[in-house]
Amino acid sequence: MELKEIINKRQSIRKYKEGDIPDKDIKEIIEAAGKAPSGKNIQNWYFAVIKNQEIKDDIAGIIIKKNESIAVEMDKNDRPKADRFRKFCKNFTVFFTKAAALTVVYSTFYKPSGFGEYESIGIDPTLELVTKRNPGMQSLGAALENFTLKAVDMGYGSCWLTSANYAAIEIEEYIKNKTGFEKEGFFMAALMSLGIPEENQKSPSKKDIDEICTFIK
Ligand SMILES: Cc1cc2nc3c(=O)[nH]c(=O)nc-3n(C[C@H](O)[C@H](O)[C@H](O)COP(=O)(O)O)c2cc1C
């Protein structure tokens, strides 16, 4: 497929047809992700692919449980807001159980240029260099965009998910206990669902070029 066609065709896929994706295809997608640029070529990513239905369902269960534990506390102050949080979880997080594969995306902390230098002159670098501009997560974003585009190129669909990150620690723990998999020094940063897309899925519109670009003269 032409790059232009792939970019235009890419959309978040939350509804999947039943069916497997061969491991070699998933590897090709992750290989494309790994070709992305990264600050100082740190390649601060690692992908744990889960096709096992029981494990996918368990992870969804962990997210629902954590969501409910937060929502119950929110109920005390604002019930409608808590219910919206519950609904969001149901609609925008756990759909990955129907996808052929769930990829748990791990990352590492990346000390941006200037971090140590700021510290050495007594300035806390966290807000300016990590929280706001976060080059480590920019690198990961480049890899995940490659993931989504390669998936489209191969006729698959994916959805990038960070809304389950409030359950990240529980998910990491579960994977470690259930499967023995643990990536030393890494933390879960996102999930990527991957599967065979159902047709005719809606996608929100994008801003016009004039809204996102200025040529400064
Ligand atoms: C960093 C990031 C996090 C996202 N997290 C979620 C998520 O948790 N759940 C979800 O359904 N979609 C998630 N999305 C998908 C966005 O909602 C989607 O990209 C956006 O609405 C635009 O739609 P499109 O991808 O179809 O163009 C995420 C996308 C990005 C880039």
General description of the model:
- Strands 1, 2, 3, 4 and 5 form a five-stranded antiparallel sheet that branches.
- This protein has a single domain (3-199), classed as NADH Oxidase (3-Layer(aba) Sandwich).
- It contains nine helices and five strands, in the order H-E-H-E-H-H-E-H-H-H-E-H-E-H.
- It has helices spanning 3-9, 23-33, 53-75, 79-92, 115-120, 126-132, 135-153, 168-179, 209-212; strands spanning 16-17, 45-50, 101-107, 157-161, 187-197.
- The chain is an alpha+beta fold and 217 residues long.
- It binds flavin mononucleotide.
- Residues 11-12, 14, 92-93, 159-163, 203-204 line the site of flavin mononucleotide.
- Flavin mononucleotide binds at residues 11-12, 14, 92-93, 159-163, 203-204.
Roughly what percent helix? 40-55%
The helix/strand order is HEHEHHEHHHEHEH
Q: What's the CATH class label?
A: Alpha Beta
CATH architecture: 3-Layer(aba) Sandwich
Q: What is the residue-mean pLDDT, rounded to a whole number?
A: 97
Bound molecules: flavin mononucleotide
Principal-axis shape equals: globular
The overall number of domains is: 1
Total number of beta strands: 5
Beta-strand percent range: 5-15%
Corresponding CATH superfamily: NADH Oxidase
Q: What is the count of helical runs?
A: 9
What profile does the largest beta sheet have? 5 strands, antiparallel
Structural class of the helix and strand makeup? alpha+beta
Q: What low-confidence regions span 5 or more consecutive residues with pLDDT below 50?
A: none
Distance between the termini: 36 Å
